[in-house]
Specification:
Blueprint: H1 5-19, H2 29-36, H3 40-52, E1 56-59, E2 65-68, H4 77-85, H5 101-123, H6 126-144
Antiparallel strand pairs: 1-2
Helix pairs in contact: 1-2, 1-3, 1-4, 1-6, 4-5
């Protein structure tokens, strides 16, 4: 399983939104793009997909932008990946000849790895990512002292 650029950029954007969740202040596309070095137009498309998927909400107006639609601890990485890539994104990788015993064995193993990956993605939330990032930042600060 490979992390697509689309999913990586979406997770980076969602981390920015998770940081602002408690304040309730929306973030504009250009703010997120500048902070995470994501192309504006691409980010706009990703946020539109995540809005349709129920992960973010948009607010209009001068102080408008995007905010999380749910609490960061209620959005799993699995939610994000399935919103962007679809439910069977990883299953498409299986392209073996199922007419043979070898092909069916390979397919079974591939399906098992697919299920294991989904289990891990369902285990972690945006809140978990924020906490891991913050802990790593603390380690970096301690290293330079």
């Amino acid at each position: 399983m490979e992390l697509s650029c689309k999913s990586e950029y979406a997770l980076l954007a969602l981390l920015e939104l998770a940081d602002r969740y408690r304040s309730g202040e929306p973030l504009q596309i250009r703010q997120i793009a500048a902070q995470q070095n994501i192309p504006d137009r691409y980010l706009e498309q990703l946020l539109a997909m995540m809005r349709r998927g129920g992960l973010v909400r948009s607010q209009r107006g001068a102080k408008g932008g995007y905010i999380l639609a749910r609490e960061p601890w209620k959005i799993t990485l699995f939610d994000v990946v399935t919103c962007l890539e679809g439910l069977d994104a990883q299953a498409k990788e299986v392209d073996v000849d199922l007419q043979t015993i070898e092909g069916s064995v390979i397919c079974e193993i591939w399906q098992e790895s697919y299920q294991a990956a989904n289990t891990v993605l369902q285990k972690y939330t945006l809140q978990d990512l924020c906490e891991k990032r913050d802990a790593r930042r603390q380690l970096d600060i301690m290293y330079y002292i």
